[in-house]
Amino acid sequence: MKCKAFLIKTILLIYFTISQVNAIEIIRDTELEQYTDEIISILLKSENLDVDDINIFFVKSDQINAFVTGGKNIFINTETIIKANDYREYAAVLAHELAHIIGGHIFNTSIEISNLSNKALPIYLLGILGMITGAADTGIAGVMVGQASISDSFTFYSRTQEASADQAAVKILCTNGIDGKYLINFFNVLEKSYGPNNIKKTNYRSTHPLTQNRITWVNSSLENIDNCNFKSDKALEKRFKLLKAKLHGFTHPHIETEAVYDSNNDIDLYATAVSSYFQGNHSRSIENMKLLIKKNPSNPFYKELLGEIYFANNEYEKAIKFQEEAIDEIEKVNDLYYMMMGNYLLTFENLVNSQEAINYLKKSIQLNSNNAYAWYLLSRAYAQTGAIPFANYATAERYFIVGERKLSYEFAIKALKDIEENSPEWYRSNDLVEILKEEIADR
After folding, report:
1. Contacts of residue 201, Cβ cutoff 8 Å, sequence gap at least 6
2. In CATH, what number is assigned to the domain containing residue 272?
3. Does residue 337 lie within any of the structural domains?
């Protein structure tokens, strides 16, 4: 994926191709990730689990869905967030998925699967491992094949788990100050989106119980809790509305976003700024973002988006300026912000900016060593400064993450020929060679 094409969108995309017809897009966005982490932190206050133990993946999809895989990996479809009417409905979805994790349902599920299909199990597990280690196209395909293989026999067992997770989710919500009835509210969203007849029709092969049954169970759980009538957090709700608007502008057709977000308030300006950006109307996007920044000059997400729009228009100095401000003003910088800054600096192709890019990209990798694109950019930055052995090392790391073991081994060998001995990169290159030596030999 080319450098500029990768950052031409506000929400960074990794395309996971399953076939020539269908594709799954896992998206990354700092605003989305940090908001979700904040909600999860609230929900985990009563649990012996930390938000850093949970891996969240966001799937660009027009279907409402969320699920857990591999123990502590939660996948959330973007439409799930868009269709939620209130941040507490989104919190309820997260509470349900956390209940699966806390209840050990995925571990128990793997045992049940092993009793159902010896052939499906290896495909299923390889799929999960593929996604976690970066071999995404093979990974998701494996999961889909594995799930299809066991779905007929597994549905009853899964429905039982879902019922248990619903009731546990109510307890998580109420214990941590969020009104549990918003889980019911989200069930009503599901009912409205898919229709009761459709849900009943597909229930025989569905892994979830009937919506009305789930509402009954949740109501029963709420009756056993003394007080779960908590007020809304207005700040969280406003941020949620902005996040929904941003996702709508990114995932829905421009004409639809224009119809839904048709005023000049902050939420609508944000939605139409994102939608216009992807439509190619950058002047309108810039105008909207400047208005938003004028109203809220300390919002780093506004400045990050404006910087990216300028970058798409080849106005690199302005892009760097706003990205620097976003980094300075965000409460917790993540790997994406440093990675984007590194990418912007590389466009100048001179020694000073390339060296500065290296510094930012190293910070990105320190925060997330599995960011394959940051390793790619780092290899480019090293090459631009003439540090070819280090470029070879960074390339070895990137290939290792995406599952290209033979290429990773070859570049690690190249790096060791000229890289400075006893440097961190030298030690790590040796590690890669030792890790991969037997694996390459066995093939």
Report:
1. none
2. 1.25.40.10
3. no
